[in-house]
Design goal:
Blueprint lengths: L1 H31 L7 E8 L11 E4 L2 E6 L4 E6 L4 E7 L15 E4 L2 E5 L4 E5 L5 E6 L21 E2 L4 E5 L13 H6 L3 E5 L4 E4 L17 E5 L4 E5 L4 E5 L6 E5 L22 H9 L3 E8 L4 E7 L21 E6 L5 E6 L10 E4 L2 E4 L13 E7 L6
Antiparallel strand pairs: 1-24, 2-3, 3-4, 4-5, 6-7, 7-8, 8-9, 10-11, 11-12, 12-13, 14-15, 15-16, 16-17, 18-19, 19-20, 20-21, 22-23, 23-24
């Protein structure tokens, strides 16, 4: 009986080894794959009704729930991602004692504290039932009369430092024509605005946009994200990114590598747009590359950059839809230690909504809800979870 027992053990060991080799081989093929769909690990589908917008400018993941702004209804839908159901709907009143006027997105500080920036130069705190708790006015602090927003679109999101300070993009520089930008305007109009919850005061961060941005002779705007100890500011029209300490006193400038997002041009902003048709302007805008957003993955120390590579869309009959969402976009993944490029992907056409993403412990979540996606259903909220951890 002993030889049979030995043979059985040997066969078992060989089977385990074969399974291990098979797993390693599959994993290597996945790592080497240029198809982003190979990295999908889960699909979540939630039934919705017509009161929930199929496109949003602001969404946020917080503590197992997904918050989704319905601008058409002036509500925030809260979805429980474990039960895959609508948990509650928060009404954003426009008038009355809880009136917000025109909301410009939202930021969830905790389950019962939600900040709403408004068009009336206010930063309003409401509870989970939509009751107004506090409101802060910053009209006198806004240098060019601009307002800040909290929108996932182009990463115009509110960030915080964990010590009661909130940070926003103030688009003063974007409102200045490229021909009028110079050293003085960069000094006069810092791009980051802040609110200190303890002192209840607003102020501009000390950081000033460096003169190196003037060489592009283009409009200056940014996308904003944050790590546990710094802010990340990505220039919309170049590969330039700044890492800034929360006081704005120190910063490092980086040139993010990309083989996909490199066709930048100032042709749109320097063209006679007022004498051109909307279609001509849209085509000119999307002819060159641009950054669509940036997001830090705190679970895996990865940086995700979303971009548009640039393409001639003059033959597209629905070119105006590009203002809503491009037909595709790219993802560039960077190592947070030195911002070196790990991998890049081109998403399939007419599948995913740009500007719609969130990160949780499972990975990066994207929404295959492009209006021209054949699988798109108006009664479903769907997102795919991508896990890129094996790439590092």
């Amino acid at each position: 009986m002993l030889p049979l027992k030995i043979n059985y053990i040997q066969m078992k060991e060989k089977l385990v080894l074969l399974l291990l080799l098979f797993h390693i081989s599959c994993n290597e093929r996945k790592i080497n794959s240029d198809n982003p769909l190979d990295f999908i690990v889960d699909t979540t589908t939630i039934s919705i009704d017509p009161k929930i917008d199929l496109y949003t400018r602001t969404l946020q993941y917080f503590d197992g729930d997904l918050y989704w702004w319905n601008a058409n209804q002036q509500t925030i839908s809260v979805f429980n991602l474990t039960s895959k159901t609508l948990k509650k709907s928060i009404k954003l009143e426009t008038e009355g004692p809880n009136g917000l006027g025109m909301p410009l997105g939202f930021y969830v500080a905790n389950e019962d504290s939600i900040y709403i920036p408004t068009m009336a130069y206010q930063f309003v705190l409401i509870d989970s039932d939509g009751n107004k708790l506090l409101e802060y006015d910053y009209f006198n602090e806004s240098k060019l009369g601009g307002v800040f927003v909290s929108m996932t679109r182009f990463s115009n999101t509110i960030q915080k430092d964990g010590k009661g300070r909130y940070f926003f993009l103030m688009g003063d520089l974007q409102n200045i024509f490229p021909s009028d930008l110079n050293e003085e305007t960069l000094k006069d109009y810092p791009p980051i605005f802040s609110f200190n919850q303890k002192s209840e005061k607003f102020d501009y961060l000390a950081f000033k946009a460096p003169e190196s941005l003037l060489k592009f002779n283009d409009a200056i705007d940014f996308g904003l994200s944050a790590t546990s100890n710094s802010l990340l500011l990505l220039h919309d029209q170049s590969n330039t990114m700044f890492e800034i300490d929360f006081n704005g006193n120190r910063f490092e400038e980086y040139k993010l590598k990309s083989n996909l997002i490199r066709n930048f041009s100032n042709e749109y902003w320097n063209s006679p747009r007022m004498s051109q048709s909307p279609n001509e302007n849209i085509n000119l805008l999307y002819k060159s590359s641009s950054n669509l957003g940036i997001s830090f993955d705190a679970y895996n120390n990865l940086l995700f950059r979303f971009g548009w590579p640039g393409e001639d869309i003059s033959g597209d009959e629905d070119a105006m839809k590009f203002g809503y969402t491009p037909r595709f976009f790219t993802i560039s993944i960077y190592n947070l230690e030195d911002f070196s490029l790990i991998k890049e992907f081109v998403l399939p056409r007419n599948v995913y909504l740009s500007h719609h993403y969130f990160i949780d412990k499972n990975g990066l979540n994207l929404f295959p809800m492009h209006p021209d996606n054949p699988s798109f259903k108006e009664d479903e909220l769907v997102f795919h979870t991508f896990n890129f951890n094996d790439l590092r």
